[in-house]
From TrEMBL:
Organism: Rhizobium hainanense
Key word Cell membrane present: yes
Protein name: Phosphatidate cytidylyltransferase
Record membrane topology: Multi-pass membrane protein
EC number: 2.7.7.41
Amino acid sequence: MSRELRLRIISGIILAVIVLAATWYGGSGFRLLAAVIGLLVYYEWSTISDLHGRDPQGNALGWLGLVLIAGATALSESVYSIEVLAAFVAVTAIMVAVRGKSWWLPGGIFYSGLTAIALAEIRDDDFRGFVLMLFVFATVWATDIFAYFVGRAIGGPKLAPSISPGKTWSGAIGGAIAAVIAGTAVVWSFFSAEDLWIPLLALVLSVCSQIGDLFESFVKRKFGVKDSSRLIPGHGGVMDRVDGLIFACFAAFLLAIVITLTMSGETFSLGGVLLGV
């Protein structure tokens, strides 16, 4: 076994233990993890796009926004964190439009800030949030694993050759099927259900996960980098590990908001809304 493979296995196990333990305990522990992930994603985004070199003042403002969002997320101030996110994205977008700087600044604030918020709100502090978070993990991880192995075994037409030459349509379909099975199995092991909402939701999140993977590949190809960073030994950066998870969380979070708004504006946990329990 090579040193690189040993590092990959050990760091992968450590990461899985940390994430699953935080998911199990929930509360402030998971919110702190979500906040840290948001900060690390912005660090990698700003490094890849060279925001410090392109727009140091704007990047400093971006860091201020992410620190405030992360702090509010860790302290369970979800409304405040969303307001701060909207404000900083709007202000930096206006700055870019006026000064002609990089649009990667407001994009990075939105991408990183919403990552922290969506993760924290999906897990929430109740049992339904715990199941929903496991459901999201299951759909994303099943998509990643089976897309790789099915794609390698079957091959065939490329999914997006100009962005990620290794991905195939067979892998994408295989990953989506596995995600539906894995996600549905997780939810149905905790709650009984007879309709097709959970399998459909798993399919939607799987597709979003694959779009997120392609999006990060596009960003890295745009700036000519192989890994988002070297923060994780043997694995590259945080964005490399959570690219699909980020888009799946975005989809779950935004879908839950839309459903909630149709329910007379009443407040529900995201787990209750999306799982229908």
